[in-house]
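Hey all, sorry for the wall of text incoming. These are the two entities for the joint prediction.
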Amino acid sequence: MRESLSQASLRVPFRVKLAVVWLGIFGVLSILFALVHFDLPWMRQHYLFILRGLPYTLIICAFSIALAIVLALLGSLGRISRNPVAYGVSGFYVSFFRGTPLIVQLFLWYLGLAQVGSNLMAQGHSWGHWLILDAFVAGILALGFNYGSYMTEIFRAGIQSVGHGQHEAAYALGMSYRQLMRRVVLPQAFRVIIPPTGNEFIAMLKDSALVSFLGTSLTTMELFRRAQLAGKQDFRYLEALILAAAMYWALTSVFSYFQGRLERRLSKGYVRELRVYTH
Amino acid sequence: MSSVSTPTDGRPLVRLENLRKRFGPLEVLKGINLDVMPGEVIVLFGRSGSGKSTLLRCINFLEDPTSGVVEVDGIRLAGGHRTHGKREMIRKLRMRTGMVFQDFALFPHMSALDNVIEGIVTVKGIRRDVAEPTGRHLLDQVGLQDKYDEYPIRLSGGQKQRVAIARALAMNPKVMLFDEPTSALDPELIGEVLAVMKGLATEMQMTMVVVTHEMGFAREVSHRMCFIHDGEIVEEGPPSRILNDPQDARTKRFLEAVL
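and here's what came out:
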């Protein structure tokens, strides 16, 4: 009996078994939700309200990752520089922003800077009002600076992965340091940098939920803040949170897929066979 | 027997005066004096660690000489620390020298053609569409007319080294420096690279300084051979004499070992 069962099991492809496991997980979850009187009609009514936060989540992340990339590029060039100012500033940047919690940094940008700004204004410096940031802007700066500090190390490793022979070949042609970086080192480093940067972006999609704690205004509320508001209003927290989680999950899955494709395209020129290997 | 007549007249194109290089406590070059005439092909040889590669790399300042003077095509630069002005002069000097490395050092993210024209496009600022015909012509010259769009990973070692030679030639250098150009190649691929180098010497009268162990090439193509030992040129002369009748005991011993 046992013998024939394992024989039969051998004939079922692994993918099919996997699909059954996943269906099982969702089945169990569905039963659990039914048991706790999961309010499906409420979800149908409110998912659009929550979904309208998604563009803002994406906008926050797009601006933040752009800022983070610029900072990481500058930071990494500083980390490999022999200039004491560049090296020192980038060292402080990485140490501070990696060494403190993101949520603390968020409030520093939002509340801390605002306090500096209003003190300045009280002393007659009218430009102090520039330091009183909108929650949306503070969120972008906080995420950008924080992720930029982690990505500095990614960029540095990528730049240093390009061998010394490449530097010599470029210098022998008469290139300057700038030309060497722009034409030879960075294009090769980006191949190494882009996959982990994609991971950072996906992580950022999730961390952008923290911006909700700053109380983004009604017009720029991102996903999680909308979910919180909707849930609070009707005491349907579970339903609202499940909706938000599902949306984040869908978002990260989509980006993971595109990141995989990008990685394969980037390996052009490095793979002998034109065949693309998938895992 | 040398197949090329020895150039003798005129000013030297490359001149090294009392060149010294020190790595910490280790003195790798101990006062090198060398003149290279236009059109001359010089082979530097010696055992590994003798300083021959360092000597070659000092000519285009991939290594900074500790002291002494390097002169290439009228650009005279002293060793020692780099200043901003000197950095610019080093770039000018490098634009007059082409270098070929042992491990090819092609840019892996560029096609063969893009490798070849990279120097003239980025450094000399020539437009791509003007540079491309030049690049194709150079690849034709090294026998790679069917490999314009191929990436380095898909080329054999010999093909890579020929692309590297074309890349260096594209800058229209006054002198070509070869750092063991065939040492990383499978034996059956060495010939195609040496043939290209021979063509450069005989057909284009290119001035060349070559670090190599290929004694056949040295005998056939070079005008002068310098035996480097322990950071000094201990013996130099035409290949016919050096290879058949070396005077210095150290040269003799080395040649007995490699021939």
